[in-house]
Design brief:
The chain has about 140 residues and is an alpha+beta fold. It has one domain. The chain contains four helices and three strands, in the order H-H-E-H-E-H-E. A three-stranded mixed β-sheet has the order 1-3-2. Helix 2 packs antiparallel against helix 3. It starts with 6 loop residues before the first helix and ends in a 25-residue tail after the last strand.
Length: about 140
């Protein structure tokens, strides 16, 4: 499966029935598991993403209104709160913090049926550009590996 398609192409392919949100999410998770040991791009991966994608596929098949993202898997930086999930801001100081609410951007993306595939590595408290100051180690550019 081609994971390098644009967001617009993804939505069109799902709408046309050429791919399912579940299959695309599963392929995305498999790709992350295959390469992230080298890249260290993710601090956490959403174990429930497949179930969320399956629910969106059911919604599509039943003819219910589906949000603009159509189950598109996306990653977010680890400074965005997702209710009931860890949000560390790439800092050991917050390594056990569990968000009590969704950040506004998260709520809006959920309303549009986006699937959060995982939390991306970043510089501690988003104070930098290279992730070399992440408490969990730097990530690497996939083009340089």
């Amino acid at each position: 499966m081609n994971l390098k398609i644009s967001a617009l192409s993804y939505v069109q392919e799902v709408q046309n029935g050429n791919i399912s949100a579940e299959d695309f999410t599963a392929a995305t998770l498999e790709h992350i598991h295959n390469i992230d040991e080298k890249l260290h791009a993710f601090l956490s991966v959403n174990d429930n993403a497949i179930n969320q994608a399956r629910d969106i596929d059911k919604k599509i098949k039943s003819g219910k209104k589906v949000g603009a993202c159509f189950g598109m898997p996306i990653s977010i930086k680890d400074n965005m709160c997702i209710k009931d999930s860890k949000t560390t801001c790439a800092s050991k100081m917050l390594e056990n913090f569990v968000a009590p609410y969704d950040a506004t951007v998260i709520s809006k993306l959920k309303e549009q049926d986006a699937i959060f595939i995982g939390k991306a590595n970043m510089d501690e408290f988003a104070m930098g550009l290279t992730t070399e100051f992440s408490a969990y180690g730097p990530s690497k550019n996939p083009w340089n590996v």
